[in-house]
Write a structure and sequence with these properties.
Domain GST C-terminal: 90-211
Number of helices: 9
EC number: 2.5.1.18
Strand content: 5-15%
Protein name: glutathione transferase
Shape: globular
Structural class: alpha+beta
Helix content: 55-70%
Oligomer: single chain
CATH topology of the largest domain: Glutathione S-transferase Yfyf (Class Pi), Chain A, domain 2
Number of strands: 4
Largest sheet: 4 strands, mixed
Order of helices and strands: EHEHEEHHHHHHH
Enzyme class: transferase
CATH class of the largest domain: Mainly Alpha
Family: Belongs to the GST superfamily. Phi family.
CATH architecture of the largest domain: Up-down Bundle
Distance between the termini: 26 Å
Length: 211
């Protein structure tokens, strides 16, 4: 039975799972959510996600939700047969990947998500004016974060030196900043960060995911 992914087609949470599937070379079926009420039913809440959210992944009889948990499940189960190593077997190397994953969750993703929400959802989708104060504060925050990333990435193509799950999770928000906002300068003016983001966007799995 093919892997099924239930989710809205465009949001970062769905696409980070799609990117993981593509990196691992796994075939899957995307079941797009076109009506939000379909994920608020009693059946969906009881059997798919207790908070009525997506993405949800179904692999045979196994059901798992929350995008980062889904990605880790896929890596744990299928990486051994893939051409890419997203989380190394070596415990020290794996711990460093987890360290950078924590950076992404705590420092990188929150300000970028605020910017993407204002620019993509509020302005482009809903056609309403953005909250300039929110965007300004988020830009100031991410600038400080990227200053640190610029130092981390000195002499390296990827965060640990080799492509990993940590890099993968950073890719999505960066793509939205480039594609849907005028703020790509936050990456472009930092040579090491610029090179890193370019490396992420040039991967075959990335191009397939965000085509």
């Amino acid at each position: 039975m093919a892997i099924k992914l239930i989710g809205f087609p465009q949001p970062p949470n769905t696409l980070r799972v799609v990117l993981t599937l593509n990196e691992l070379g796994l075939p899957f079926e995307l079941e797009p959510v076109t009506d939000i009420q379909t994920i608020k039913t009693e059946d969906f809440i009881a059997n798919k996600h207790p908070f009525g959210k997506v993405p949800v992944l179904i692999d045979g009889d196994f059901v798992i939700h929350e995008s980062r948990a889904i990605c880790r499940y896929l890596i744990s189960k299928y990486q051994k047969d893939a051409k890419v190593v997203l989380i190394p077997d070596d415990p020290n190397k794996a711990a460093i990947v987890e360290q950078y994953l924590s950076y992404e969750t705590a420092y990188y993703d929150p300000p970028l998500t605020k910017i993407v929400y204002q620019e993509l959802v509020i302005k482009n989708f809903l056609g309403k004016p953005i909250d300039e104060a929110v965007v300004k504060q988020a830009l100031e925050e991410i600038e400080k974060v990227l200053d640190i990333y610029e130092k981390i990435l000195e002499g390296k193509d990827y965060l640990t030196g080799e492509y990993s799950f940590a890099d993968l999770l950073h890719a999505g928000c960066a793509q939205y900043i480039y594609a849907d906002t005028a703020h790509s300068y936050i990456f472009e003016k930092r040579p090491n960060v610029k090179r890193w983001i370019a490396n992420l966007r040039n991967r075959d799995a990335f191009k397939k995911t965000y085509a």
